[in-house]
Amino acid sequence: MRLIMISLLLSFLVACSSDPQPLQYGKDICHTCKMTLMDKKFGSEIVTKKGKVYKFDDLNCMVNFYNSGYEGTDNIEHRLVIDFANPEKFIDAEHAFFVKTDEIRTPMASGIAAFGSEEDYSKFNKKWKGTSLSWGDLVTAFK
Fold first, then answer.
1. Is 8 exposed, middle or buried, given 0-12, 13-18 or 19+ CB atoms closer than 10 A?
2. What is the 3 state secondary structure string of 1-41?
3. Residue 31: phi, psi to the nearest 5?
4. Residue 130 DSSP SS3
5. Consecutive H or E run containing 137
6. Are 30 and 70 in contact (CB under 8 A)?
7. Cβ-count burial 61-87 (b if 16+ within 10 Å, e if not)
8. What is the pTM of this model?
9. Which DSSP string do the residues of 74-115 spell out, in sequence order?
C-alpha cells in the first residue's frame, strides 16, 4: 500500500512539472494552425505554471495564441523559441533577438527568425537586411 501511495505521489509530481518538452519534428502538431512541425529552424513552445505545453510551428502562431488570452500571461512559466542558428535549441523568447525578413521562408509565412545571441543575429541579418524586433515588438505586432 505504501509503495502505491509513493508511486501515485511521484506520478502527480511529474505530471505537474512546468519543464519544457523537446519539439518532435514530423510528429508534433501546432496548437494554432494544426500543421505538423517540420522545419527544425523554427518552432516555439509555451509552458504554463501547471505544466500544460502548447507547441507551435511558427512565431505568428505562438504570438497569436499568446495574445488570445486563452492562457493568462501570469499563468505562463516559459515562452520558448527555436534558435535559427542552432536548430532544435530552445531560447527564452523574452531575451531572443528576432529579425523579420522576406529572405526566409517560415512555416506559416511570418518571415521571422529568432536568435539566441546578438552575434548570430548580426551575422544572418547582414545579408538579409531585415527588421530587428524584440519580444515586446512581436507581441504588439500580432495584436
1. exposed
2. CHHHHHHHHHHHHHHCCCCCCCCCCCCCECCCCCCECCCCC
3. -65, -35
4. coil
5. helix 135-141
6. no
7. bbbbbbeeeebeeeebbbbbbbbbbee
8. 0.85
9. GGEEEEEEE-TTSTT-EEEGGG-EEEE-TTS--TTS--EEEE
CA 70, 83, 49, 56 torsion-angle sign: positive
Per-residue model confidence (pLDDT) at position 43: 97
Grid cell locating 67 = 495574445
The answer to whether the CB of 51 falls within 8 A of the CB of 60 is: no
- 103 contacts: CB under 8 Å, gap ≥ 6: 111, 127, 128, 129, 130
Separation of alpha carbons 121 and 76, rounded Å: 26
The amino acid occupying position 59 is L
Instruction: Answer whether 125's CB lies under 8 Å from 99's CB.
Output: yes
Instruction: List per-residue pLDDT tens for the chain, 143 residues long.
Output: 554 544 444 444 445 677 889 999 999 999 999 999 999 999 999 999 999 999 999 999 999 999 999 999 999 999 999 999 999 899 999 999 999 999 999 999 999 999 999 999 999 999 999 999 999 999 998 77
**How are beta strands 90-92 and 53-56 bridged, if at all?**
unpaired
